[in-house]
Amino acid sequence: MHYKEAKSILSSKNGMNLYRGCTHGCIYCDSRSTCYQIGHAFEDVEVKRNAPELLEDALRRKRSRCMIGTGSMCDPYLPLEEKEQLTRRCLKLIDRYGFGFTVITKSDLVLRDIDLLQSINTKTKCVVQMTLTTFDENLCRILEPNVCTTARRIEVLDTLSRAGIPTVVWLCPILPFLNDTEENLLGILDACFEARVRGILCFGMGLTLREGNREYFYQKLDRHFPGMKQRYVQMFGSRYSCRSPDHPALMKRFHTECKKHGVLHSPHMVFQYLNEFEDRQAGDQLSLF
Ligand code: SF4
């Protein structure tokens, strides 16, 4: 890892990335794509040391409160967060200034901050988003080797829900010929329903591949699933969007099951829910996006 003094921290849509790069090792990682111009080895994580100072300045300047998001480009609960505490320090500021918060993670380290997540959630809204891709624990250890597996993530979702913190699951990517089965889909969905998740995001049964992440993904396929790369090349060529042949049937089942269990399942509605700032203390709701 290496430190960097960042120039700014909040994007125009109130998202922030406290780190750049990631050590979770997901074999399908889109953040490795060359278009993001990381500029250093992906695992050599850049730590934006001055992020809390920049965030405090940005929050002070805001005319109105809103949801602040993190985790879209790299997981804010990397193992090095245990020592660096950038995420925790930013959470304290978000709590102190009365903003809402949402985070995307795969790590159970998020539970370390449950006190702050609860505090934010009593004043406004705090939503934890967690990615789940496979219900098969052995496959999970191959696909996402350096972070807790699906079973533990489901425990985390359940713990958060019991603590009154709403959760949303990202059901993606679904890798053609590897986890694009009805068994996998229903295993994940049942676990989500039991853990009382508020919404599930699924943009299609497939994955995206582009320069940078494709090469890495194919290397890992060669290592763990001999012959699979050739199948991908034959089926998808150099396409960006690689959909499972079972996409239509699986999507139909996805929507049917979510509807039956009263879980938000259209991306539009889930994002609307995530973006909506709620002022619980004032007793009203205000959409600021
Ligand atoms: S957690 Fe996200 S950023 Fe990190 S390796 Fe996995 S897909 Fe990439």
Brief descriptors of the model:
alpha/beta; six-stranded parallel β-sheet; binds iron/sulfur cluster; three-stranded mixed β-sheet; 289 residues; 39% helix; globular
Outline the structure in words.
The protein is built from eleven helices and 13 strands. It is α/β, with parallel strands linked by helices and 289 residues long. The chain has a six-stranded parallel beta sheet with strand order 2-5-6-7-8-9, with helices on both faces. Strand 8, helix 7 (182-194) and strand 9 (199-201) form a beta-alpha-beta unit. Helix 7 packs parallel to helix 10 (247-260). The radius of gyration is 19 Å and the shape is globular. It starts with a strand and ends with a strand. The model is unreliable at 285-289 (pLDDT under 50). The structure holds iron/sulfur cluster. Iron/sulfur cluster binds next to loops.
